[in-house]
Amino acid sequence: MGLIDESITLYKREMLIFQANLRANIVRALIFPLVIIVFFGNIGNAVSHTPISVVNYANNAQANDFINTLQSDNQFNIVALTDENSALNLLHTGAVQIVVIILPGFPDSSADQPAVQVYYSNSQPQVIAASLPVINQDAKEFGGAGIASQQSSPVPQQTAQSEEVSSNPLYSAQGNYIDFLTGGLLAMVVIFGALFSGGISYITDRQSGNIKAFLITPINKNAIVLSRIFSGSTQGLISAFLALGIGLFFGVTIAMGPSALIYIAVVVILLGVGFSGISMMLASRIKRADIFAIFAQAIGLPLWFISGGIVPISSLPGWMQPISNLDPLTYASNISRGVILQGFVPPGELVTDLCVLIIFASAMMLLAFRALKSTIE
Amino acid sequence: MAETILEIKNLVKKFGDFTAVNDISLDIKKGEIYGILGPNGAGKTTTINMVLGLLKPTGGSIRINGIDISKSHGNDVKKMMGLMTQETVVEGDLTARDNLEIFAELYHVPKSEIPKKIKEALAESELTEFANKRAGTFSGGMQRRLALVKAMIQDPKLLILDEPTTGLDIQNRVNMWGHIKDLTKIGVTIILTTQYLEEADALCDRIAIIDHGKIKAIGTASELKRMVGTGRILELVLESESQAQQAAALIKSKFKLSPNVRIDKVDAVIEKWDPKVLPEILSELEHKKLIVASVNVHLPTLDDVFIKLTGSGMRDDASNDFTSARANVFMRR
Questions:
Q1: Predicted model pTM
Q2: Is residue A220 less than 8 Å (CB to CB) from chain B?
Q3: ipTM given for this complex
Q4: pLDDT value of position B218
Q5: Which CATH number fits domain A50-159: 2.40.50.100, 2.60.40.1940, 3.40.640.10, 3.40.1710.10?
Q6: Which domains does chain B have, with CATH numbers?
Q7: Does B108 touch chain A (CB under 8 A)?
Q8: What is the 3-state secondary structure (H, E, C) of chain A?
């Protein structure tokens, strides 16, 4: 019997306890992604009466019909039908969120001469994400042969040039917000699954005297730590796949297809090992589960936000953006978002991301061994 | 004379300025049940943790089956010892079988022997039909029986029972005593700590009484009782504290006894028991208008020994949380 065998025995015990409380554990793992995906994921879709202003250069019958269609759709509220400068002013002051410009050639469009042009602000990304496809669709209805003949979108999306308006593209070419959110949420549920399993079980085992019972057996003490790192990662993996399942149920599409699951599993296991290590380090110093929970939240939540969990990193305050480079979740999310949104991760990025995650996981594991070595004599 | 299995010599453990164990020496023979008694904070748990290798002694030596554990606390020594404490009963989320299997594996019981060992353990603990039920659903008595066979799964030579029956009702406690006694028949040596003195009296071949980290007395239960005297113990409860004081003074002067007063209670050892003494004492008290609420005369018990040696009753110290303070010290290290 060596370290691995002993760790497997203790891992088996952890998982039997997990299994004994399976229903509670599954519900706990489901609640968070369910709330986030249902609530935030659909925020854009539920948007109605988005204030817009329209600039009509075409001034023909089809253009008027197009305006009526936009108006009749509950999605929009046409605040002003005005000239371009006034419309952009309204956008800059926040009175409207989108400016739709019907170009003179409407409804005819070509690759270099679109029929409709749109300016928008990035202050509410979900609203824009929900609105642009609708405008696109409405414009297509009037496009006739002119639009059908071309592959490009009739609505080139432009952002207004202004200091308070971001010029960055939102999520990705094809992705919508729910895909974006799910990609980042996977990392989140893993780190919370891992943070709250290994350390909490160690603290309760210490209180109940189980750690003492393990220490007097002839096992390698590191098995106590290693088994919890295994079990934390397993629980992280389970949480991640449950979250992904919820995302799929609510309409998330995985651009890469089934092989994405392999990428996601690798990322999840590396994150799980790293954060289980952090969990064990915390447990080595903290005696009470309630105090532990405060620390775990304080570590997990900021890391998630900084990694671009809810909004893209580019939308974060400037001073936060460099910090995201130090956040392992950033690298994990880059892979999970890549496979979900784009269907690939550029090889160079993939290597970097994996290296960072491997180094992170190994370092946390070694630090956890060290932290507990000094507390268990 | 039987062989020594555990030899503790001049053992000392200090936590900073606090001396938890102060020069303790014990010699425990193969096959005996050895009781370690003491109020909370006396140093019992610290001593046991040192024997188990969980704490390093500040001074002195511990030899288990002839092996000096400061030189080698290897796996051989660990496999020789089993532990059952009141806190680690069993794991409620696991079945009886899983509880046993995990510890069998941790103690490196050969894989091929594990099923047989589990079967025997379940039969011994009368839990065969509950093998696949979660231990959390078991009664207190069933959980303790499971804990006992779990502590024995690796066939230890030395079994340490740290308050094995605390919290159990009397039927279950007596049932546990039977199981513990059975173990000595197969040659297991048992170290028992308990807060029930009648338990020590019923089970232990020899008893060491520890207080403030020092050994106060070692002997068989009857040897210890003889330290209190061969007579009887008189216990009087009076109406009030002041009456108790007066009664004690009276008993001391008239009957040449040396009574102890604890609030409204007066204890005295009557060395030469004569049935006529009791009515004489009572009539004397009545004469002084001291109202006696209750009278009790009995042979010395371990309680009396305990009070005599440590100056307090075992359970009086229950609120005194030294033991858990000690446990925290262990954690912090």
A1: 0.73
A2: no
A3: 0.77
A4: 92
A5: 3.40.1710.10
A6: 4-225 (3.40.50.300), 230-299 (3.30.70.270)
A7: yes
A8: CCHHHHHHHHHHHHHHHHHHCHHHHHHHHHHHHHHHHHHHCCCCCCCCCEEEEEEECCCCHHHHHHHHHHHHCCCEEEEEECCHHHHHHHHHHCCCCEEEEECCCCCCCCCCCCCEEEEECCCCHHHHHHHHHHHHHHHHHHHHHHHHCCCCCCCCEEECCCCCCCCCCCCCCCCCHHHHHHHHHHHHHHHHHHHHHHHHHHHHHHHHCHHHHHHCCCCCCHHHHHHHHHHHHHHHHHHHHHHHHHHHHCCCCCCCCCCHHHHHHHHHHHHHHHHHHHHHHHHHHCCCHHHHHHHHHHHHHHHHHHCCCCCCHHHCCCCHHHHHCCCHHHHHHHHHHHHHHHCCCCHHHHHHHHHHHHHHHHHHHHHHHHHHHHHCC
